[in-house]
Amino acid sequence: MRASGGPTPADLSRRYIEAHNAQDLEDLVALLADDIDVKGSEDPRLTSASEVRAQYAGDWSSLAEVFVEVLRLHEWTRPSSRRSRSTPGHRHTSGTAGR
What we know:
Blueprint: H1 9-21, H2 25-30, H3 49-62, E1 63-77, E2 84-96
Antiparallel strand pairs: 1-2
C-alpha cells in the first residue's frame, strides 16, 4: 500500500522504464525494494539491488541499444488485500553492438 501522496504503482513503473531506457543505473536501483525478486525468461533470479545493478550493467554493455516501449499500463487493486499492482504491457527491443 502506498503512503498518502506517494507515487502510485503506475508512477513507479513509468519511472523504472524511463531509467531503463536512459540506462541510468542509479535511478533504476533507487526504485528497487529491499526484498526484490526479479526473474526474466532467460536470466537468473535476482534478489538484491547489487545483483540487479550487475545484470543491467552487463546487459547494457553488450548491447548497442535497449529500449522498452509501454503500450499500455494496467493498474488494479485487489479488494481482499487492498494491495495495488501495476503491470506494464511493453515491447522490449534490443540491438547488438556492431550491427
